[in-house]
Amino acid sequence: MLSYRKYSDDDFAHVLKLLADSHEFDSIDEALLKEKLYLDPEWNPDICFIAENEAGIVGFLQAVKRNIKEEKLVYIKLLAVESNFRRTGIATALLHLVEEEARETHCKKIRIYDAPLNYFMPGVDPRYTPAICFAEKNNFKRVGEAINMEVDLAYSDWDVSQKIENLQDDNIYISRAEELDKEGLNRLLDTEWELWKFEVNMAYMLDPIAVHVAKVKDEIVAFSVYDGNNAGTGWFGPMGTHEKIRGYGIGGVLLALCLKDIKKQGHRKAIIPWVDPIAFYANYADAKISRIFWRYEKEIN
After folding, report:
1. What does the alpha-carbon distance between residue 70 and residue 87 come to, in Å, rounded to a whole number?
2. Same fold, 3-144 and 151-292
3. For the chain, how long is the longest CA-to-CA vector?
4. Which CATH superfamily is domain 151-292 in?
5. CA atoms within a 13 Å half-sphere pointing along the CA-CB vector of 298
6. Sign of CA dihedral 261, 262, 267, 268
7. Tens digit of pLDDT for each residue in 122-137?
């Protein structure tokens, strides 16, 4: 007999095993799941649901709400059903619980996985065929795709000390961010990249701070980040350069500094998620497209 309820902390270990067993193309460990659940800026156990029977937990769905550019959205951030119980309506039943919450709180749309700020994947990897079938069965529409790239860190030693020295001739100074830089960096993020503040601030919590910046006359004009999301997995980004200072090669230098740090952590590869400027990363890091994700959306009546 199946029953449905809200998630509690006592479920953590069982949910971790379910998710790990269900994601054959990804790795989920205790630290990563804690980040996805408890470190989400809008973590809400009231929209995190469990399906269980006499033997234990067989289904799990985590949803989060976001207000993105004044639009209220609900995101399915994590979803898994035990393999022996797929095609029995469990995922759809969990979705209906989320849809009810969305209607009650006047959210107009539900999306799958591509939740800004704190996310596991920027969409649905189509190799997870049951997830694609679930989305299309439940009237989600494909609204785009997201691309991940991968860098073989053996490609270079990522030493850009000479380039950093050359930039100083143009009064551009590159360094690892310090605590006193945080206010100025947030001012820069306010100009174009407000949605990235959460990831940048997460990277600031690490030791060493996983942020590099460029300054002109003590004003921060560019930044690059790693481990701001999916920490410990070799995750790069976000990064940005103010339009007034583009063209000096600052982005390539900041990218290299982060990749050098990721390599020092013992990773053989770095992941660049949700990529837009494919040519930039191919040029500066010989990055290759590694995964494509389909983005799905459903309007709520």
Report:
1. 36
2. yes
3. 72
4. Gcn5-related N-acetyltransferase (GNAT) (3.40.630.30)
5. 22
6. negative
7. 999 999 999 999 999 9
